[in-house]
Amino acid sequence: MTIRATGSRAAARPARGRRVEPSRRYAVVMAGGVGTRFWPWSRESSPKQLLALTSSRSMLAETIERLAGLVPPANILVVTGRRYRRQVLAASPSLTAANVLGEPIGRNTAPCIGWATLEVLRRCPDAVTAVLSADHVLGGARAFGRDLERAFTLADRQQRLVTFGIPPSGPATGYGYLRAGHLVQGAAPAREVDAFVEKPNLATARRYVSSGKYFWNSGMFVWRADVIWRELSAHLPDLAAALEAMNRGRRRGGIAAATLDRAWPRLPSISIDYGVLERSRHVAMLPASFSWTDIGSWDAVSGLWPTDAAGNASRDPLLAMDAASNVVATRGKPVVLLGVEGLVVVDAGDALLICSRDRCQDVKGVVGRLEAAGLGSLK
Amino acid sequence: MTIRATGSRAAARPARGRRVEPSRRYAVVMAGGVGTRFWPWSRESSPKQLLALTSSRSMLAETIERLAGLVPPANILVVTGRRYRRQVLAASPSLTAANVLGEPIGRNTAPCIGWATLEVLRRCPDAVTAVLSADHVLGGARAFGRDLERAFTLADRQQRLVTFGIPPSGPATGYGYLRAGHLVQGAAPAREVDAFVEKPNLATARRYVSSGKYFWNSGMFVWRADVIWRELSAHLPDLAAALEAMNRGRRRGGIAAATLDRAWPRLPSISIDYGVLERSRHVAMLPASFSWTDIGSWDAVSGLWPTDAAGNASRDPLLAMDAASNVVATRGKPVVLLGVEGLVVVDAGDALLICSRDRCQDVKGVVGRLEAAGLGSLK
Q1: Could you give the ipTM of this predicted complex?
Q2: What pTM value is reported for the model?
């Protein structure tokens, strides 16, 4: 990053000015949920973010390692389901027990971020926090580093709620979009956000992409801890009050399980986007120069794995004869495909899934039917 | 079976007369070949006839057990590949080493039957032999017993080469057919065989079936050992001479491996149908009253396994959602099918096959390509 002497405007609001000191940098990695669309690899006891879906390591480990040199390891918190605390600790050697917050049940992103923000503020009242998800796949480590630096600075200097916008590579219908507005003064290429829009249909998505004004809503944020807490308190006062009450019961070692069990399930299940960002006047969007994919189903992994000339994606030994556009995940077991097309084939050792690629979203529904099929142990 | 006093004609040729004494009854079970169409369950080291394809026991064990009460266990011989001798012995507790003949390589049915016939003649010069295949699936144990009794009697009294003809249940194109002629005098419902015909195309098969004159050629035979040897000597004299020479080198414990290694590969590879039966004037066909299936490929097992309302055939725990007409063989591993149709799914523990049902015949070709794909250990 170069620092230019750009005269009075830059001097007034030096968004590209001094870097945020490492001790003030924090990261909150959201790693809740099971990821049932990745059954049979994902289980209640083995959630998606702990799977080696995209590389030989878990997505959580990759997310944490991506922060090396950007956020001190001691300042990286992970919020996960309480039952996964031990596995999360095992997934990354730099994690300590005090940095893993275990939710009794999932209550969407606003309670999760609220709790983590209180914990960050307790440790460092002027922290700047990056909020990341454990199930995003990012490409371009250098670009990510540059963009995160820029976001830390923007969030700190202009007290913005910075969200990363992904320049769309196609008319995806599985993501929400951000409509970009004017450049943020003194912080180009950051832009104001004119609107948050829900997942569009294909025609609308095409229009968004061709307009050049829409970006994918990555769900990755950077903000000062005091700023997001102020905004959360303004827009979701009941949630903020409940979290503060819960936090007052904190002892050495964290909030007691009994306190959590009592308070947590009563929190509203609401997303940070809907509850805070869409209502706030302080949001800014930084167009990402790294690549980004939200790995939502087996179909999505196909783009990340080695693919043969016929479009068969697999990391396992594969013999494909007159077979095209299949996705194979068998943890090393050799597979022969003969005369088949557009399938997802997943072997988990104790269970096998054969699914049409266009039905990958419905894998979520499989899990709910296992019990009735006498296969409850595979949930 | 009832014995009727039917007057002079029956008295002249009492085909339904005295039963063949047990000590003269022999059986030869042909259990050669690998059955590569059943890959990945079948392997060079684990041939089809030793697989539990149709029940919880191997097809070979079922074939032998089917003879209980019909042929003394000591009179049941199995001809197999030499490398499978030990596995064949293990497959059935009633087998002894002296009753398992190991071919160095497969040379089709005429040499196999010729060798076994010499062995039977050595033990019992007036034996009547049933020749069966280890990879046929028969239904109706009582009907089979009745038909076999009838065939023993017919073969013994009229010195016929008796072949079982299967009343076709549909216009199968995977079987050869027998065209039935006149009733055999004094041995109804046995008929003369007017012609052996090759596997027909579908239109021809339909014509065969609607004519009522055609039966599937089961490849199951009953004959006196001296009669088949006489016919084999008449129609394949070189083969008979070579087998006799080989047999002269016989010692205690059987023919020496070195003798077999020298003589066997030089034998003509020819079927008993083509080499002897089609040329003989002593063939008779007994219409079977048991059901019969030659299990030639994964597709064929579908009819033998439990099948759900959507036509999914499986013996394994199966959850089928919007899935129809699939065949699943996973040796107990639970399988979920979602939105797929007409597939064969086979798990062998160390390898997985996903195949379109209409490509089952091509599984044979998979085995030849494993080596080049770096999967030679799975042959």
Answers
A1: 0.84
A2: 0.84
